[in-house]
Design a protein that fits this description.
By secondary structure, the chain is mainly alpha-helical. The protein has seven helices and two strands, in the order E-H-H-H-E-H-H-H-H. Helix content is 57%, strand content 2%. It is rod-shaped. The C terminus is likely disordered.
Length: 210
């Protein structure tokens, strides 16, 4: 029975992460002389140096990019493109994105607070809306983005795609903000709960966390 073909989906370079980096590290460890890398799926400085050393020994341009020529020399089937290297954002970059999104949502929250105060709703309704704005809408999104509470910041420990979790957080914030705004608007006009009920009937979430 023939052995399965080992494939590399690249190109890869420093900053790349994931299973294909593990494949690269394993191939470099199996080369002569072996690289002795930790196979952790993180293309860091040690993997970069090992790759450049291998490329130089094989008369391949030592650019630190695992492309078709390098894969062939390593005995690995290359199934990627010849374009730009695959790069995954580092934890530092992800944290910076989370902070930027959080600041943007905070500005929206402060604008909403001003609108709520000018809504003409009762004091009780305004207080209820303010609490929901701080805790239900903004607070939940902030905790998720910044990795507080039971959440991980932008999926650092649960996802290779930081953008996916951020999109969900922002969308959830916007929907909850719409519910709160409509509720306050109804209160101000004296049309208590009418539009709010219609929104909640179409969105699978409630104004209060159960």
């Amino acid at each position: 029975m023939s052995s399965p073909v080992v494939t590399l989906n690249g190109p890869l370079t420093q900053g790349s992460t994931g299973p294909d980096v593990q494949t690269l590290q394993t191939a470099l460890n199996n080369a002569a002389p072996p690289a002795s890398l930790v196979v952790d799926g993180k293309f860091g400085p040690k993997t970069d140096k090992a790759l450049r050393d291998f490329q130089q020994r094989r008369a391949i341009k030592p650019d630190g990019i695992a492309g078709p020529a390098t894969a062939k020399a390593l005995g690995v089937a290359y199934i990627g493109s010849s374009g730009n290297p695959v790069r995954i954002k580092t934890a530092y970059q992800q944290a910076a994105i989370a902070d930027a999104i959080s600041r943007g949502l905070e500005k929206i929250k402060e604008a909403a607070r001003k609108d709520i105060l000018k809504s003409g709703a009762s004091k009780a309704a305004i207080k209820e809306a303010m609490d929901d704005l701080d805790n239900f809408a903004y607070g939940d999104a902030f905790d998720t983005l910044e990795g507080r509470g039971a959440y991980a910041a932008l999926g650092l420990s649960k996802s290779w795609d930081p953008g996916l979790d951020a999109n969900v957080d922002v969308t959830r914030f916007a929907l909850r903000l719409a519910i709160i705004a409509t509720y306050v608007q109804d209160q101000g006009k004296g049309n208590v709960h009418a539009v709010k009920r219609r929104i909640e009937a179409s969105i699978p979430m409630r104004l209060h966390v159960s």
